[in-house]
Structure formats: C-alpha cells, structure tokens
Amino acid sequence: MAVKVRGIQLTTVRQPLKNPFKTVLQQVEEREVIVVAVTGDTGLIGYGECVAFETPWYTEETITGCRFVLEQVLEPLLANKTIENPQDVWELFGAVKGNRMAKAAVEMAVWDLFAKQQEMPLWKFVGGSGDPIPAGVVVAAAPSKIAEQVAQAAESGYRRVKIKIQPDMDITLLKSVVAAYPGLQFFADANGSFQAYGVERLKAFDEVGFTLIEQPFSERQWTLHTQATKELSTKICLDESIACVEDVQQMIDSRAGDIIVLKMSRLGGWTETLKVVELCQTHSIGMWVGGMIEFGVSKAHNLALASLPGIVYPGDLSASRHFWEKDIIEPEIIVESGEIVLSDRPGIGYRVV
Fold it and tell me: What CA–CA distances, in Å, run from 297 to 36, 46, 67, 93, 149?
C-alpha cells in the first residue's frame, strides 16, 4: 500500500546524560539529536532519530551538518512524494553522496509509517521473531568507576556488559572485573585506539576473558584486523569499518573479523541494514545491534532490528532510564529479568512525547 508524504517535521532534543559517557575519543555529557516525523496521507506519523554527534569523532557527520542536509536536501526530495514501498527512499536519496546518518533518520521514519499503515509492529513488518530481546549495557567510564558501574549493571539484571578500553588500561583490573561476574557476558570496545600500537599490545587483552574486541584499529585498516583475527583467540568485531554491504564483503574476503555491529545510523537506514543482515546470514557472520547513546525512537528501531534471525549476540539495548532521567517515548523501555519485551503496537510501538 503506497504512502503519500504530506509533511516532514524536525524536532531538536537535547538532554544531559545521567553519567558522563567516556571513550578514548571523546567524553559525552549532554546529547543532542533530531527527531524526524514523517506524516502520510492518512494522518499517521512515522518517526526516526538522527543520532550524529556534535563533533565528528565517530563518523564524519555532525548533528549540525545533518540538520542542514535534512532541511535543505533530503526533505525537499521526499516532500509530497508517493512512496510505493519503504525501500524506495533509499533509491530516492541515491543521488546524495554520503550523509548516511541524516538519510537513516528519514528512512527509519518512513519504515515506521509503513508498518503503522499496515497495522503491524515494526519488528513483524521487517521479519522479526517477536521474542524478548536480551539487554546489554555499555560501561564508558574512568578506570576508577568501571567496577562500580559493572556492579550496577549486574544488579539491574543486564546479560551483557561492554567496556570501553584503550591501550594503557590496567589488564589486571579488567581481568578482576570480568572474573567477578561469571554469569555476565563481556565485550570490549576500542574505538580504533590500538592503531599506533599494532597487534602486539592488543594481545595482552586476549587474556581478559572478553567474548569479542570491537574495532581495535581504524576504519580502513583491513590488514591489521586480518592479523588480529588470525592471531587472537578473542573474536574481532568491526563497527566503524562497516558503512555499507560492500564493506561486509571486504571483511569476509580479507578475513578481517568474525562479527559485525549493526548500526542503522551508520549504514543509512533499514534498507542497507537488511542487505547486510542477509549477507551475514549467508556467510555465518555473527551480528549484534550497537547503540549511539540514543533516545527511545532510535532504540525502538534497534529493538525491531535485534529481533531478526541470526542476531544472536546481546546488543547495546538498555532501559530508557539508563541514560536519561526521562526518555522521549511512552511507555519507557524497561529491562526485566535481563530482557526487553517487544511492543505489539503498530510501528515502533511507542508514543513520542
């Protein structure tokens, strides 16, 4: 069933985090996003969330640049268009180079709108199972705060904890934290920080007990990632290196990793992400859904993504109250017994407030 776009609204949301989010690249204390609302001819509204950061520390996009692209480039391309299926948005935006985070925010809104028009939960619309989603949390803190925040995560019932690491961290500290919680699964995220140190320094982290080490080297360092995949027993996972389905094929061909992080914002939205999922399923590549310190709109899309077959590792899927005193959706996302129950309501399943 086709949708005619009747309106596109952009709303800026800015809130402080409950706790600073510290990585080797930047410390985030306040978060700004753009919520995209696309209204169809029946009056239904689909929602997406632009999750670029204020500075280009994760990708080259920034929230300021995305606002310009959304207002001046993408919105005019989509306004008053009749869309036969949500994949058409990817083709419509094809003439615009890059700007995947801006594109993703609009495209996600259109997918939500189509699911609502068909009166289906988004997870069902994209082929998900509807089973509860295992919850995971990120610990991005100074070394003195890591043990405390891991203890809080364990007490809250999370099944997986991802710790932000960098080359000069105390291996003994990390080993003691991981050993203290044998029932928890631990990931490590390096954000490319081992680039200047090579594989030898990374090998010290092979002893910690992590399930995987995410993005130890920079985005295009296929050779170093191949070497690490070959020489470490801990699985190597790629995040920033994967911007499109061709990058996944490059990883497969060069054996530069075992697992990838799925982030619709980095990939440009649902259409490209579903292509990546299909390729990973074909080649038995592990997958999990990554977070972007996002609000509930983006997280609702991520929950639908995490319901797809083959996504077996717990993702960055935490409760609304983990980052925020109050989320922008109702009801808020909650974690019970280490899981998040998917909504049966149409579309993303939450009301945007």
Answer: 10, 10, 17, 22, 25
| pLDDT tens-digit readout, 38-88 | 999 999 999 999 999 999 988 999 999 999 999 999 999 999 999 999 999
Estimate the crossing angle of helix 270-282 against helix 245-254, to 10 degrees: 20
Q: Is 8 helix (H, G, I), strand (E, B) or coil?
A: strand
- Residues listed for the chain: 353
Catalytic residue among 103, 116, 162, 164: 164
Q: Is pLDDT above 90 for 28?
A: no
Averaged pLDDT score across all residues of the chain: 95
Give the 3-state secondary structure of residue 48: strand
CB-count burial class (<10 Å; 0-12, 13-18, 19+) for 208: buried
Burial of 297 (0-12, 13-18, 19+ CB in 10 A): buried
Active site residue 164: yes
Closest by CA position to 312, among listed 348, 233, 258:
258
User: How many Cβ atoms from other residues are within 10 Å of residue 238's Cβ?
Assistant: 25
Mean per-residue pLDDT, 133-157: 92
Separation between Cα atoms, residue 324 and residue 17, nearest integer Å: 6
C-beta separation of 152 from 127 below 8 A: no
- Judged against a pLDDT cut of 80, whether residue 25 lies above it is answered with no
Q: Please check whether residue 302 is in contact with residue 124, taking contact to mean a CB–CB distance below 8 angstroms.
A: no
Phi, psi dihedral angles at 36 (to 5 degrees): -105, 125
Read off the tokens for 267. Answer: 């990939």
Per-residue pLDDT at 1: 79
Determine if the pTM surpasses 0.90: yes
The residue behind tokens 């809080």 is 152
22 is catalytic: no
The count of other CB atoms within 10 Å of the CB of residue 326 is: 11
Q: What are the CB-based long-range contacts (under 8 Å, 24+) for 148-154?
A: 149/19, 150/177, 150/180, 150/181, 150/184, 153/184, 154/181, 154/183, 154/184
Active-site residue (options: 103, 162, 235, 263): 263
pLDDT tens, 232-244? 999 999 999 999 9
